[in-house]
Amino acid sequence: MPLQNRVTPFGEIVAVAARGTMMGNRGRLHDEHRRIVRFTQVPRWLACVLEFRGRHRQLMRPGYYTELFFLDEAAAFAAGHRPCAECRSRDYRRFRSVWEALFGAPATAGTIDAQLDAERRDGDVKRTHRAGVATLPDGTYVAVDGDAWLVAGNALLAWSPHGYTRRVERPRDGDVDVLTPRSIVAVLAAGYQPDVHASATSAASSPE
């Protein structure tokens, strides 16, 4: 049976067989039976690479942080995670540089985490905001009829644990519920391009 360690763009932690392309953590969320018993432990929500300096981890080891997995960086952003400063040092510095240009310098990991923590959740409930769908930068996630969709050019791509499955044309007007925290949307609009799953290419070119 799959472990409950896969994160959706809604920030939920679910049990599915697919692993995704990124790992991350929110602290220790599991008990000695590898069951998820809390939504978060710390305000530092990271998005990490799957391999780093040959390190190997036993998943959900007792007393250690819970390894979480995302389809891609855009999905991790939607859930409210940021680039890890250790295993993704270059991406973190790029993210922080854009952040400082937008919100003022200096920005530390702690100040970034505090702002994201206030934006991404209300207790254990996902915090969303409304915005014009036509104004959103690529890499943003929106919710439509209970499903998560990635903004990609003139299309919206449907998220699934295994990849992007289909496309619809992005509406030219109207407001939508935005899953990606406001500050990260601003970072994306300022030019930070998140990694997206390879299936986005085929989904974006498929018929509607």
Structural notes for this entry:
The protein is of the alpha+beta class. It is built from five helices and 14 strands. It has helices at residues 73-79, 89-103, 109-120, 182-189, 199-205; strands spanning 4-7, 13-15, 22-25, 46-48, 68-70, 82-83, 121-122, 125-126, 129-132, 141-144, 147-152, 155-158, 167-169, 175-178. The strands form four sheets. The chain has a six-stranded antiparallel β-sheet. Strands 5-3-4-6 form a four-stranded mixed β-sheet. The termini are far apart. The model has no long low-confidence stretch (mean pLDDT 94).
Characteristics of this structure?
globular; 208 residues; 23% strand; 5 helices; alpha+beta; SH3 type barrels; 6-stranded antiparallel beta sheet; 2 domains; 4-stranded mixed beta sheet
Could you give a quick summary of the protein structure above?
The chain is an alpha+beta fold. Helices cover 24% and strands 23% of the residues.
